[in-house]
């Protein structure tokens, strides 16, 4: 692949769509009535409730830029797909996003271009119809930008708050701080970035988050670098996280919160990070860690695993941390 000349098929087919229809469907049931009624609708390029298996995701490079004060987010995703069966159709999930296909890069055939793009609202699927079919055993990169709104409810990328007290007790009044977090399960990843949002479509994720300096961000894996992102927004930086092992999109987690909350790394049998929004006495903090270790030991014996299933504990009822799993590869 490396030797082939990458051909940029500049498409810039910007197709904006905003969906207002709330989907009330659960993936996972092959015999869902939607699937049956959709089949045979020849006007749509794809009508099955499940995604086609001709393309499988290998890797996603996701850059997310939430703006908490404006309750919006934007981002960029590159989906690297492996061609399992020859096809001219790329189908994936997206919901309540404004999407713009920037580029389809295919090493194999310079003459492949984008013929048509569209949205299948009922299935929450977006499709890209190519001018010629892709060959088996090749790789195609689909580069897209997207925009959306931060949800007030705990679905997709949502806004939340936590209260905080100053650590030196100089100001006993509680302050309310803003945060955004993700809740991707079971089918909400598609509301945060376009992806093949079915549990069996696992892939590696390389996640970056753009934030203002007085915020912090977390994701599934360890932070790799923090670089300047003032081109994206004034005084902003970008946190880049290590590549995850192959996981389903619904396991991706991201949190951005104001720096007033504190994370202390405690090492017992293994490191655990305690998320605190109000200062705790050391003994109290030890209690939290001991409880977490007991829970882990139970899960370890039950599931027969050696790695801790989580890396953060929060005693402050800051729910989003429930979704951060330890996934160091
Ligand atoms: C959010 O939007 C405001 C107003 O446009 C801007 O001043 C701020 O820098 C933005 N923050 C981020 C993180 O983009």
UniProtKB/TrEMBL annotation:
One Pfam match: Peptidase_M1_N
GO terms (BP aspect): peptide catabolic process; proteolysis
Designated name of the protein: Aminopeptidase
Superkingdom of the source species: Eukaryota
Sorted UniProt keywords: Aminopeptidase, Hydrolase, Protease, Signal
Molecular function terms, GO-annotated: metalloaminopeptidase activity; peptide binding; zinc ion binding
Native organism: Elysia marginata
Aminopeptidase N-like N-terminal domain mapped to chain residues: 57-249
Gene Ontology CC terms: cytoplasm; extracellular space; membrane
Signal sequence coordinates: 1-23
InterPro entries: Aminopeptidase_N-like_N (IPR045357), Aminopeptidase_N-like_N_sf (IPR042097), Peptidase_M1 (IPR001930), Peptidase_M1_aminopeptidases (IPR050344)
């Amino acid at each position: 692949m490396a030797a082939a000349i990458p051909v940029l098929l500049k498409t810039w087919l910007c197709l904006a769509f905003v969906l207002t229809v709330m989907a009330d469907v659960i993936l996972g049931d092959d015999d869902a009535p939607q699937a049956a009624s959709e089949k045979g609708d020849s006007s749509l390029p794809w009508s099955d409730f499940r995604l086609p298996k001709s393309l499988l995701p290998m890797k996603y490079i996701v850059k997310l830029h939430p703006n908490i004060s404006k309750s919006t987010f934007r981002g960029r995703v590159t989906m690297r797909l492996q061609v399992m069966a020859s096809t001219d159709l790329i189908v994936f999930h997206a919901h309540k996003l404004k999407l713009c296909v920037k580029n389809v890069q295919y090493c194999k055939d310079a003459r492949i271009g984008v013929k048509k793009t569209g949205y299948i609202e009922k299935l929450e699927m977006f499709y890209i119809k190519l001018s010629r079919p892709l060959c088996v055993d090749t790789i195609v990169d689909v580069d897209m930008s997207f925009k959306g709104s931060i949800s007030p409810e705990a679905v997709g990328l949502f806004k939340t708050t936590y209260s905080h007290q100053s650590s030196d007790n100089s100001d006993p009044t509680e302050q309310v701080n803003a945060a955004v977090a993700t809740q991707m399960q079971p089918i909400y990843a598609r509301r945060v970035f376009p992806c093949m949002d079915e549990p069996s479509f696992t892939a590696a994720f390389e996640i970056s988050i753009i934030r203002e300096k007085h915020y912090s961000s977390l994701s599934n894996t360890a932070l790799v670098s923090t670089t300047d992102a003032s081109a994206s927004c004034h005084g902003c930086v970008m946190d880049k996280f290590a590549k995850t092992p192959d996981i389903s999109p619904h396991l991706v987690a991201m949190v951005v919160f104001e720096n007033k909350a504190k994370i202390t790394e405690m090492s017992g049998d293994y490191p655990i990070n305690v998320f605190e929004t109000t200062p705790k006495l050391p003994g109290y903090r030890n209690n939290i860690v001991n409880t977490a270790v007991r829970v882990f030991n139970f899960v370890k014996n039950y599931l027969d695993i050696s790695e801790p299933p989580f890396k953060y504990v929060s005693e402050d009822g800051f729910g989003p941390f429930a979704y951060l799993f330890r996934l160091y590869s």
